[in-house]
């Protein structure tokens, strides 16, 4: 499939690609160049304030669980929130 670079470097994705990936106007895509190849991946962007609120909720959840739940139970959740904070 061949697409054209438009003024200001804009690219238009073919309708079939947009439909197959269930993309909508305003959706975000991460662009990565690997060995001269452009890769576009649909992503969700989470505002920092929402990540901070989520971190607070997780902390409160841990406290309310107390000794009834192993701290190991939260490792995956902590890792997921850490991942959100990376970018």
Structure, described:
The chain is built from three helices and two strands, in the order αββαα. The protein has 87 residues and is an alpha+beta fold. It has two domains: 7-43, Pemi-like Protein 1, Chain: D (Ribbon), CATH 2.10.260; 48-85. It has a two-stranded antiparallel sheet with strand order 1-2.
Q: Please state how the strands of the largest beta sheet are arranged side by side.
A: 1-2
Distance between the termini: 31 Å
The main sheet comes to: 2 strands, antiparallel
Estimate percent helicity: 40-55%
Radius of gyration: 19 Å
Would you report the number of β strands? 2
What percent of residues are in strands? 15-25%
Helix tally?
3
Mean pLDDT: 89
Secondary-structure element series: HEEHH
What class, by secondary structure content? alpha+beta
Described by the principal axes of the CA atoms, the overall outline is elongated
What's the domain count?
A: 2
- Which stretches are poorly predicted, pLDDT < 50 over at least 5 residues? none
